[in-house]
Description:
3-stranded antiparallel β-sheet
Amino acid sequence: MADIIKLVTSDAGEKLRPIFDSIAENGLPDNCEVIYKGPRNLLATLDQGTINVKQFGIPSFPNNFIYGKLRKSKARRSFEHAHRLLQLGFDTPLPYAYIEIYRRNALGIPMLRRSYYICRHLPLDNIRLWEGHPDLPELVDQWGAEIARLHAAGVWMKDHSAGNVLLGRKDNGEFTFSYVDLNRIRFGVHSTHRLLRMFKSVSTSAHFTLLLARAYARAAGKNEQQVVHDVKKIFRKFNHIH
Length: 242
């Protein structure tokens, strides 16, 4: 029985459609460069390093039924969230397309087998080791201000870890922040407690977490002492510190 393929492109991705059609029909090409391969997901570049493809793991039941029917797939959410972030004035690699591949089960019900999110590749490193950055004070101040801007726009990133933030720098020395791994973003969130939970995994160090929280409070015009108190509780809970 033939697979059911859903391929959606952005305006920018339409000219690359033959590449995406090939992925939908045949999977990732042999000459792609694998950047990361985890137990479920795989990240690769192709087309001479200009295209980024995230291949999501094959969902098990009942998720393979839920995705596409009752809930959007991770690939589709990543694609739509990228567009929303760009519309709100935040940076993320330019979205090109998403692909969903379904196969009917014995009852004729389409079940999600595989999905891909495809975007432009940005040759930037994440800030996983930001605590040792040579310009740490400037980075902390600007990252804190960036988080304050996200919160003012109602953007809650449930996976806001340093590994999901790509760091760039303009000619004038100003830092830029570009977001990846987008499927677990929520928009229209204005609960202070939920938004502050974005600090839970920015660092494994309480000292540096609170350093960033203070910069955020200053930029957001919030009570610094209260923010530090709340973030400390969130950090301790996340790291099982009693």
